[in-house]
Amino acid sequence: MHDIRSIRDNSAAFDAGLARRGLEPQSQAILAADAQARAAQMAVDTMLASRNAASKQIGALMGKGDKDGAAALKAEVEKIKADLPAQEEAKRQADAAVAAILSTLPNIPAEDVPLGENEGQNVEVKRWGNPREATGAKEHFDIGAPLGLDFESAQAVSGARFAYLRGQVARLNRALGQFMLDTHTTKFGYQEVVPPVLVRDDAVYGTAQLPKFAEDLFQTSDGRWLIPTAEVSLTNLVREQILDASAPLRFTALTLCFRSEAGAAGRDTRGLIRQHQFEKVELVSVTKPEDSDAEHERMTAAAEHILESLGLPYRRMLLCTGDMGFSARKTFDLEVWLPGQGQYREISSCSNCGDFQARRLNARYRPEGEKATRFVHTLNGSGLAVGRTLVAVLENYQQADGSVIVPEVLRPYMGGVEVLKP
């Protein structure tokens, strides 16, 4: 959510920020709705003040024996009471009109985010590892089938974009998730959380998936939403709170995630890259504004550490204005090398959202020595997407005989197993 006071004070800068996102100016429509909301608020305040003043005068007049004057004021108070609900409703509608506009507008990009229309204008910041040659390399669904990766059974049970992981592949998948959690909690100081995966409207609105992206989500018959990422549950831990921001809050969780993939028709229809149900280790941080840029780097480094520990070549990309997510002001994507596809594919996205989500959540802190509160900054990232990491391990550690070498850091989680064999 955007700061309406900032838009009032500098509407040109706000429109310029939206223009970097490829959007038309919106400030005039916002300010017009805001003027109506402020006028409605003033009308309510005036009516309440008149009612209170008249109520006080009634007592004084009665004390003087002026019954006629008191009766007139009582009639005035009764009229105000009768008219007030309609004026309060007008105020609610005016406020809702402002919120309706603001809730559909994305975050303003940070100044150092490159201008661009799509992923073709993203900027490579860093590259690590030596990619394995793609010649002769198989894709993960061919490697995994003899090891327990079963799409056909899932198709019969659930339809497209689901999978059964069985036997060796299931154990490797579990090992990956546990290794990620252990690393983030012990090395990087994230607090492990087991959060709900069903949430209410307010929770999904708070992290900005609603109202704009409802079609990307799954909703239950009782109106709750299946989380598309644990970012929703973890970030909502601080909603409606005034926090002690002396140190960043850091949360991590391994959860199931659910996405309808409404806009992904025809893309990645085979394999684990784009599933309706998948596992992901999420990282969420909550900081003071002045600390969020450094925390963004730290979070991204934590995700990179997982890839480096697994020996998976990757590159870090700074996303351009046209490829960033709705709530982000700056995003780094980590793309892992997949020799079966002969290309880098996204495996983590780490975003600094500034105070965009905090305004929706009303998550604040009180700076030391100050009475007023300020909004915190929130950050989120994948640390990592477990299924995509499984894909990367299968493809990068595949052998000519169909076996897959288990990365050394995972072997303690695999009971010492060093090789998966068909």
TrEMBL record:
The protein's assembly and partners: Homodimer. The tRNA molecule binds across the dimer.
Top-level taxon in the UniProt lineage: Bacteria
Species per Swiss-Prot/TrEMBL record: Novosphingobium umbonatum
Protein name: Serine--tRNA ligase
Assigned GO CC terms: cytoplasm
Primary localization class, coarse: cytoplasm
Family to which the UniProt record says this protein belongs: Belongs to the class-II aminoacyl-tRNA synthetase family. Type-1 seryl-tRNA synthetase subfamily.
Any Gene Ontology biological process: selenocysteine biosynthetic process
Function description: Catalyzes the attachment of serine to tRNA(Ser). Is also able to aminoacylate tRNA(Sec) with serine, to form the misacylated tRNA L-seryl-tRNA(Sec), which will be further converted into selenocysteinyl-tRNA(Sec).
HAMAP family the UniProt entry points to: Ser_tRNA_synth_type1 (MF_00176)
Gene (name only): serS
Binding site residues for L-serine: 229-231, 259, 282, 380, 382
Reaction equation(s) it catalyzes: tRNA(Sec) + L-serine + ATP = L-seryl-tRNA(Sec) + AMP + diphosphate + H(+); tRNA(Ser) + L-serine + ATP = L-seryl-tRNA(Ser) + AMP + diphosphate + H(+)
EC number: 6.1.1.11
